[in-house]
């Protein structure tokens, strides 16, 4: 089996080479289209619980509004957004079930496992009060 061609650097329009891209970063970037397709497919699937779909909608709404719980100070200000994304992704994957997620996933199992682990870790870092509010609301 031949190996896939994988770019490991970028070139500017004038032909200058930009530093090498780490394999982890490249795998992450390459997983984004598959992750986007997975999210869309899960949101369209009637077998996914409605509450999980509502949570995704509320998360997207929070991300596009200018109101933040933590002001957008570099790095610290994006923490609430990242934790909410991880929590929402984790909840969507968990409530959908492994079989359904695998049915809609186009990438490799290894990449999906990494996504699950990262979303689980991020969801675990979400403050208990925020989790309690979401659970009280029924999400």
Key attributes of the depicted protein:
single chain, 139 residues, mainly alpha, two-stranded antiparallel ribbon, 6 helices, 5% strand
Quick description:
This protein is mainly alpha-helical.
Q: Give the spatial strand order of the biggest sheet.
A: 1-2
Q: Judging from the principal axes of the Cα atoms, what is the shape?
A: globular
Straight-line distance between termini = 45 Å
Radius of gyration: 18 Å
Low-confidence stretches: none
Largest sheet: 2 strands, antiparallel
Overall helicity: 55-70%
Protein model, in words:
This protein has 139 residues and is mainly alpha-helical. It has one domain. Helix content is 64%, strand content 5%. It is built from six helices and two strands, in the order ββαααααα. It has helices at residues 23-44, 50-64, 79-96, 98-104, 109-125, 128-137, and strands at 9-11, 17-20. A two-stranded antiparallel sheet has the order 1-2. A hairpin with a 5-residue loop joins strand 1 and strand 2. Helix 2 packs antiparallel against helix 3 (79-96) and helix 3 (79-96) crosses helix 5. The chain is globular. The mean pLDDT is 82.
Question: Topology, pairings included?
Answer:
Blueprint: E1 9-11, E2 17-20, H1 23-44, H2 50-64, H3 79-96, H4 98-104, H5 109-125, H6 128-137
Antiparallel strand pairs: 1-2
Helix pairs in contact: 2-3, 3-5
